[in-house]
């Protein structure tokens, strides 16, 4: 393992038990997210789930959405839309940099 591996948010590092402890949830909650296809942890050689920091973030956001009263389908859709919006914002910022515009010039247009 290298230092770059430690920075990789997609590296499958945490067991189901560790992930549950970090998030303050029960292990069946994480397994249910895997079954629903919300997160797809990698498997160790022995078949055990291994979660990345990115997946822990997804699971945490799903838990928050459930706590707000969202059902599984609504929470999944919200999560997907949030990721799309973040990607669009990053792309807009990159395009503005290429055009030489300040990154926050959108606020001046509003």
TrEMBL record:
The keyword Lyase does not apply. SMART domains: HTH_MERR. SUPFAM superfamilies: Putative DNA-binding domain. The keyword Lipid metabolism does not apply. Keywords: Coiled coil, DNA-binding. Residues 71-98 form a coiled coil. Residues 13-81 form the HTH merR-type domain. This is DNA-binding transcriptional MerR regulator. It comes from Prauserella sediminis.
């Amino acid at each position: 393992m290298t230092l770059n591996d430690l920075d990789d948010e997609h590296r499958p590092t945490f067991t189901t038990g560790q992930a549950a402890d970090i998030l303050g949830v029960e292990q069946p909650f994480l397994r249910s997210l895997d079954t629903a296809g919300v997160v797809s942890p990698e498997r160790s050689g022995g078949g055990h789930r291994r979660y990345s920091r990115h997946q822990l973030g997804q699971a945490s956001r799903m838990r928050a959405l459930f706590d707000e009263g969202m059902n599984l389908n609504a929470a999944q859709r919200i999560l997907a839309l949030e990721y799309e919006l973040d990607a669009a914002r990053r792309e807009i910022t990159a395009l503005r940099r290429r055009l030489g515009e300040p990154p926050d010039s959108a606020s001046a247009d509003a």
